[in-house]
């Protein structure tokens, strides 16, 4: 056999794929993406449904066109494990569906619940929440570039519950029902600064998303060290600005339901921010200036 080719032994991880071959031959100069494509064709499975790891140490063989198989440590007669990840759905699709909930729910509840007519604060609350998620939808469609193409299909239900129930049904009911704090008159000392916080948060969040988008080419999976607004003071200023915007919405809605949604969201964002800081340190080493705060300077 030519030294430019190698044969890999294949073992299933978890539930085996019915048509998965026992071995596969490929070129040492082929990419990880080429290996995934071969396995997908031979097993009649979507390439996004496969996870390939090395038998020697269990590390992931990346599905990337930028990494040749010879750089993964695989050699002739090496063993790889192939796992069926189950049904997958595109990240973009999940985001579009989950953000759609509050966009639909808030205007509907606002139009039917207040009696005798909506107050200024209720109208303002509906506008702020709806515009926030419209912004997210537009960013998902036109701005975001995802490092992974898909996620498990069941995530649609988990993620949608967070947005459709907590940010949608629960928040809308308590904001627009008769007798809610939003039925009181507008207070300029509270509500005007709240609107300013919303504007700063939304615009700052958009600016950081543009910075993150520009780190990756269209369809690419390359990573870079982000620089620009907020990135010198914390790992994920996009989350910092997101929280600033929601503090503004909280002050306008004056509702514990908004606070509940925020607390859950902040918990998720904090975990993601810590994970991103660890990845930056591991991937870029001394090139990356370590951050003391991952999301909220002085707090988190």
Average pLDDT rating: 93
What structural category characterises the helix and strand content? alpha+beta
Subunit organisation of the chains: single chain
Count of individual helical segments? 7
**SSE run:** EEHEEEHHEHHHH
- Report the sheet-strand fraction: 5-15%
**Ends apart, CA distance between termini:** 56 Å
Strand order of the largest sheet: 2-1-4-3
Number of beta strands: 6
Q: What Rg do the Cα atoms give?
A: 24 Å
Question: What are the low-pLDDT stretches, counting only 5+ consecutive residues below 50?
Answer: none
Largest sheet: 4 strands, mixed
Percentage of residues assigned to helices: 40-55%
Q: Overall 3D geometry?
A: elongated
Write the topology of this structure.
Blueprint: E1 5-13, E2 23-27, H1 32-43, E3 50-54, E4 79-84, E5 88-90, H2 91-112, H3 120-142, E6 150-152, H4 155-176, H5 188-213, H6 237-253, H7 256-284
Parallel strand pairs: 1-4
Antiparallel strand pairs: 1-2, 3-4, 5-6
Helix pairs in contact: 2-3, 2-4, 4-7, 5-6, 6-7
